[in-house]
Amino acid sequence: MSAAPLLRLDDVEKVYHRGTFDRTPAFSLRVDLGFDRPEIVGVMGPNGAGKTTLFEMIAGSNAPTGGRIMVAGQDIQNVRYSQRDRLAIHYHQSYQVRNFRKRKPSFMMERAAGSYPLVHLFDEPQFNTQDGYIGFMLDFFRKLRSDNRLVFICLHPTAPFQIDIMREVCERFLFVNKGGVSEYATLPDMTRQPDVRQYLGALAP
Fold first, then answer.
1. Strands 150-154, 40-44: parallel, antiparallel or unpaired by DSSP?
2. For the chain, how big is the Rg over CA atoms in Å?
3. Which of 49, 103, 106, 170 is the most exposed place for a label (fewest CB within 10 A)?
4. Dmax of the chain from CA atoms?
């Protein structure tokens, strides 16, 4: 494995405009964070806040407007399209994630240094409440971490048990809101913030 940090988001910015000819910004997201070691990171935030955009950029299917995203020392945007999931993989149930906008031919790009993804991004995974299923999923996340992988779990909680899942398995937390990403060391640190409590409403611990 590379000695470089598992993941760096260096002054990353994503700006969406109102249209092809109207360049007025409609939405922007800014993030500058580093993840040096394997861990399980919980991500929350309102719908439309940019959580999926953040995951898409890390996995390389959505190019940032500015800054760069380094996965184990490789700029994900410089890695061949077909090999980006050897560095970071985005799991999402509602659509086909790997829809790359090709900026140049693959043969002109770098090969992925790894053969199995180092960063795993779970975008609102469905936790079936049947006996044993949630435990199976939590064990799977922990197995990835013990295999030196960086795991992100993005939830939009609608029930208390989803908060319990994040408390049980996550080691660091991100809250995506109003174009920014705030980082917290613990779940209580995050959930005592007024904007987080407003987002969670009755689910706030």
1. parallel
2. 17
3. 103
4. 53
